[in-house]
Amino acid sequence: MNVGFYRSLFPITATHIHLASCSQGALAKPVSRAIEDYQHELLVSGNNWKAAMRKAEEARERFAKLIGAEADEIALVASVSDAISAVAVSLSAGAEKRKISFTDIDFPTVGHIWLAQESFKEKTSIIRSCHGEIPLEQYEQDVTADTLITCIPHVSYYNGYKQNLEEIARIVHQKGSLLFVDAYQSAGHIPIHVKEMKIDLLTAGTRKYMLGIPGAAFLYIRKELAEQLKPQITGWLGQNPSSTFDIERPMFAAGTRRFETGTPSFISIYAACSALNLLLEIGVEQIEADLTELARFTIQYGQEKGLHLIGPANLDQRSSLVAFQVGDAAKAEAMLRDKKVIVSAREDVIRIAPHLYNTQEEIQHALDELAIVLKKI
């Protein structure tokens, strides 16, 4: 991959070191132009509905290609929280299986949503981690024949720990459970193939490693499963075309499209489409290979600087997101930003999260600055 060329597409790299893709990816020139295109269409036409709907279909197809799915297995939603909520309320309260499992390394919104479901509230099971990691044996133990759905993150937002989706899918399917994957911290820089990995449901947003902006996310549901679900959150875009304007006789759209509601944030969709085109042009496999080497350097150099690594050192068990323990992480983040180094704080860690536009030299400089900051706080 020609890092120099792709760096030139991200203006922020000329003035700052951007290492916060786990929170917000840097904005690329073609993505910025896509946003301007949306605005221009409105300025000159007044109504760009048909063009915007075509762009939505293009974004759907691009995300489907990114994860190895079919377009009709993808719904466009506003956020990952919306996607999880839509699935949660679509599950039958009278289902024979009553148990919901999620992990303590999920992003908190996952627990918030499931614990808000009165019909499942007393039947939730939290799969516990050990030092931020979950051994496969824990899934064997905690997922039971009574488990309806098991929710897991592909990558931990806190420490970059990466889970083995194929093996977890094998375990939960043996127990008769569905597997719902939060891929917000992996889609865009780690290869995903939902069919090969036997994933039943998956969601991801665009503002992090997919290089988009807030307001656009995707929900994948395996086609056969989607046809069995009856969304309680729906809307006119989630209807079969024949009933779109029939107020008395609604009929769900085919596949996962039934989970769509009203008019999406088109400006976010335009950005997402351009960003996905960029990722597919480069290839996620190539991005992962380059970021693995950056992660290797980050861990090694960080430890040489006396920084305390949080999460596994084994590159097979982690993403390129590397977390170092910091007492006052929020203060450290602010101090680094004053030095034009953009990182992301979470609880007691500073997360170093590079993407395709970053270099080893940038990471070295960022860690040098972090070491200096730690001596001041």
TrEMBL record:
Residues 50-363 form the Aminotransferase class V domain. Its cofactor is pyridoxal 5'-phosphate. Keywords: Pyridoxal phosphate. It holds the Pfam family Aminotran_5. It comes from the Bacteria. SUPFAM superfamilies: PLP-dependent transferases. InterPro entries: Aminotrans_V_dom (IPR000192), Aminotrans_V_PyrdxlP_BS (IPR020578), PyrdxlP-dep_Trfase (IPR015424), PyrdxlP-dep_Trfase_major (IPR015421), PyrdxlP-dep_Trfase_small (IPR015422). Belongs to the class-V pyridoxal-phosphate-dependent aminotransferase family. This is Cysteine desulfurase. It comes from Bacillus badius.
